[in-house]
Amino acid sequence: MAALTKVGLHEDPSHRNPLVSLYFKCCLFGYVQKLLDEIPEPDLVSWSSLISGYAQNGLGKEALFVFYEMHCLGIKCNEFAFPSVLKTFSMTKDFVLGKEVQGIVVVTGSNLMSMLPILRITDYF
């Protein structure tokens, strides 16, 4: 990260987002947070990478917090971030929140409507 920062590339999403993924694969969560804290306005890919990384590492509560923060900032989730968010419900067993996310999918738009059969799984828990 020091080399990217030194030349100013840490703000470029095409360099930053693979670095986020690398840090998660190496379980360097502090570095991920530091990197994202330095970004003035993270893009949707950065948010999705953060949610996915936490979910893949079994940190469901952290992933849900990031989703909540993203949603509060008015950043709309996409079909790439929602599966990671859904994975967290099996970790946290927070199916009430799962229903709320299902509602967000319905309200968000038609490109996510194909996910509704997957989201209906929460009805069976």
Automatic annotation (TrEMBL):
Entry-linked Gene3D superfamilies: Tetratricopeptide repeat domain
| Keywords for this protein | Repeat
- An example Pfam family from this entry, by short name, is PPR
InterPro entries hit by this protein: PPR_At4g14850-like_plant (IPR046960), PPR_rpt (IPR002885), TPR-like_helical_dom_sf (IPR011990)
Q: Where are the PPR repeats?
A: 43-77
Q: Which NCBIfam families match?
A: PPR (TIGR00756)
Q: What is this protein called?
A: Pentatricopeptide repeat-containing protein
